Amino acid sequence: MPKSLPVIDVRAPICCAPLANGAMSTEDATELALRLKAIADPIRIQMVSLLMGAVGGEMGATNLADAVGVSAGTASHHLRQLREAGIVTSERRGVKIFYRAEPGNLEAIRSTLATCC
């Protein structure tokens, strides 16, 4: 049986010192790993890319599914993973759900991985 990963509080900002600063705490390493795991999938990377370039900064779940060539159920799974990691946010409007990338959280991940000042 696969080991379940802890749930992270996406309301908390991604706030870790860069890896090059030395040893990272277990808690910070776990939070970073969970966020990296959430984005470490080609479909999810495509979705984030589409959201970052979307007119108005958002796209509907159906449009995202169509754009990456997956079913609505598969898209929903991937978007849930991204949302739980704080990489995207969602808003329901009627029966449709619209997603928006969280550039601040993506920048925080990038900053943590930076190897120089």
Give the SSE map:
Layout: H1 26-39, H2 42-53, E1 58-60, H3 61-68, H4 72-84, E2 88-93, E3 96-101, H5 103-113
Can you offer a commentary on this structure?
The chain is of the alpha+beta class and about 120 residues long. It has one domain (about 25-115): Winged helix-like DNA-binding domain superfamily/Winged helix DNA-binding domain (Arc Repressor Mutant, subunit A, Orthogonal Bundle). It is about 50% helix and about 15% strand. It has a 3-stranded antiparallel β-sheet with strand order 1-3-2. α3 crosses α4 (about 70-85). The longest helix is centred in the N-terminal third of the chain and has 14 residues, at about 25-40. The protein is elongated, with a radius of gyration of 15 Å.
